[in-house]
Amino acid sequence: MVCRQVIAKGRQVHVNAVSSEENGSAQRPARPRNRKEVILRTATEHFLRNGYHRTSMVDIAATIGITSTALYRHFTNKAELLTRSVLNGLDEIIAGIARTESLDELIDSLALGALTHRGMSALWQREFRYLSQETQALVMRKLVGAAATAQAAIQRARPELSHDDAEFLGWCLLAVFESVSHHQVTLPEGDFLALLRAVGHQVAASELPTGSDGRGQDFAIDPVIPLPHDTSGTSRRDRLIAAAALLFSERGYAAVSIDDIGAAVGITGPSVYYHFRRKSDLLAEIVDLAAAATEHYTAAAIDNAESPVDSLERMLRYYISFAFTHRDLVRVAVSELTHLPADVAAGHRMRQREGIMTWARTLRAVRPDLDVDAARVVVQAAIMIVNDVVRLPGLMWRTQLHDDLFVVGMAAHVTQRT
After folding, report:
1. Looking at the domain 215-366, which fold is it?
2. Angle at the Cα of 142 from the Cα atoms of 163 and 184, rounded to 5 degrees
3. Alpha-carbon span 108 to 418, nearest angstrom
4. Residue 134 CA to chain centroid, in angstroms?
5. Which residues on adjacent β-strands are paired with residue 11?
């Protein structure tokens, strides 16, 4: 130990200086060996909570407790962080299912992967547009490959199925496990895995209809809240909402300008402000319309039903019809909430949760063996199956797609715990 004197304001101050040779604690802390892993995990949490557009490298570095300069030693920019966050989780899940040899093993692997990488599906779905075109193509190839693996496992277990039906069920099966990424319900891990496995097995075992009876169209009821379908409506306000919904759905909220929205209905950008004060007000209106329509359909299902089972069936039928008719509203409501002011987004999330709770209570009237959280997990899985399928152009050729989705959705609902 070295003792030295420092003269400060006329006083003698004794300072004990400890050499690095005598005490290693004076040295800079060693860099953790898993620094990259910590950075990726932290970045993923930020992207999920705040969205890619509202997350900066400074935010990520501050959370970890390092400088942004240190962060750049590991990753070139924020885009690279997003790419690695998406691909790492996806690659681990795909590697897991590639090692499986049976449908049981595949479902077990998907369930474990879904909980281990719980935010991965929501991340790539919400932030897909911010990935480079090359990475987008890579992600799609990986997802198509995962669906093919699921299709093959289902067909081995059910050789009577056609290739097309097994492929359809493969996509539905993946959606079950993607669904946990879009809610915050918590269950004991063992119970959660068992429930997901049970839903997965029921979906894979669905007996698809051999002929369409057209029932899906019978449930396309007219909502109390007007929902703009296109940009040719008579009300300019409705035309703006429809145009914004289409553009936000196709490009993402951040990539669309007020001028883009105005041009879509034949007016200048500044003219949009006669109807909406800011772009986020348009987004809030779109999300509100989606929520209002869902609430209306849910209430109609309960009011018009003759039994709890009938009510549950009507809820599913109504939602399928709504999701097909208003794909843009559904996609925007699911993917673009992070662009709203925090208090507005929180209000909409609460409204969405209340809608899920109403559906879950209806399910529990049919399935009293499920507690409320388990019922919410099942409902979210059924909804995600619909949301995913309506966004897959490769499945739109199916002439009875409404009925196919209804059968699979009901199969998910009647799941028995294993």
Report:
1. Tetracycline Repressor; domain 2 (1.10.357)
2. 100
3. 12
4. 22
5. 8
Q: Encoding tokens for residue 99?
A: 């090692």
Count Cβ atoms below 10 Å from residue 380 Cβ, excluding itself. 23
State which amino acid sits at residue 196: L
Residue 95, classed as helix, strand or coil, is helix
Q: Residue 126 in contact with residue 335, Cβ under 8 Å?
A: yes
Three-point CA angle 197, 200, 205, nearest 5°: 125
Q: What is the pLDDT of residue 231?
A: 53
Q: Which amino acid is at 401?
A: L
What are the DSSP E strand ranges found in 130-200? none
Q: Which long-range contacts (CB under 8 A, 24 or more apart) does 165-168 make?
A: 165/208, 168/208, 168/389, 168/395, 168/398, 168/404
Residues 178, 150: contact at Cβ < 8 Å? Answer: no
The whole-number pLDDT of residue 83 equals 95
Distance CA 55, CA 387 (A): 27
Distance CA 303, CA 315 (A): 11
Contact 130, 52 (CB under 8 A): yes
**Buried/exposed code over 342-377 (b: 16+ C-beta within 10 A; e: otherwise):** eebbebbeebbeebbebbbebbbebbeebeeebbbb
CA angle, 119 then 112 then 389, to 5°: 60
Lookup: tokens for 52:
């890619």
Unique residue bearing structure tokens 């490298």: 57
4: helix, coil or strand?
strand
Instruction: Tell me the Ramachandran region of residue 209: left when phi exceeds 0, alpha when psi lies from -120 to 50, beta otherwise.
Output: beta
The rounded average pLDDT for each run of 10 residues, N- to C-terminus, in the chain (418 residues) is 44 44 48 83 92 92 92 93 93 94 97 93 89 94 96 97 96 97 94 98 93 44 52 78 94 94 94 95 94 89 92 93 90 90 91 94 95 97 95 90 94 71
